[in-house]
Amino acid sequence: MKIFLNKKKLVDLIHREKNLGFVPTMGAIHEGHMSLIKRANLECNKTIVSIFINKPQFNKKDDYKFYPRILNKDIYLLKKMKVDFLYLPKNKEIYPYGINRNIRISPFRKKLCGKYRPGHFEAIADVIERFVNIIKPNKIYMGEKDMQQLKIIKNYISKKYKKIKVIGCKTIREKSGLAISSRNLLMSKNDKKIASKVYQILSLNKKSIVNKKISLLHIKNEIYNLGIKKIEYLKVLDINKLVKPYKKNKKYKIFISYFMKSVRLIDNI
Length: 269
Fold this sequence. Notes:
Helices cover 39% and strands 19% of the residues. The protein is an alpha/beta fold and 269 residues long.
């Protein structure tokens, strides 16, 4: 695995790659990231992973400050996964002239997480586009756990970069059902146990929730009874009607954001 801290050296080496897969990350590599890398390795000639904790997408200073940083372990895992290239840029290399305040993305940005995190998805679209212009990948691999992010970025990239394909990969879960996330590192065993019960409640009742046989209020009360203090949102949405162009067939997902003590968790089931 070749590690690059310098943009020019990276570009000089990869500019001739014909089938390059890109996995953007903020580090704290886990099984979810690994599943993206496995697919990129299968479908592409070469795979590049970036580790960059993108400060503009954080709405709270503490979230950015306490985001897990375990670079040595990340490098070990990426070498084990036989990643071809790792890009570790400094902030000045990605944002030489500051952020782009003119990003135009899907109106879906205002719903779900976007309602509580203004500017979050614009910041993600901005940083992904900057990486695209440096790396020029053929395929970008992103997880379905962050479904709203995936839909918005897929829509944004498909409009501006016709030859680049954004590929969504299924959510990887722990045996308990809890979606694997870097933020899980911030939770105790007991916190994770409670969070897994949230998944179980939603998963077991999904059909009844979608068919409106059980109300979302009832489900919220069940979740609060687990000891969860705050639910940001709990919604049922047709994922084929989130961003245009819409698909005709209906496919429902339950979207949730809640706080396990101070850790904000999201999932879709």
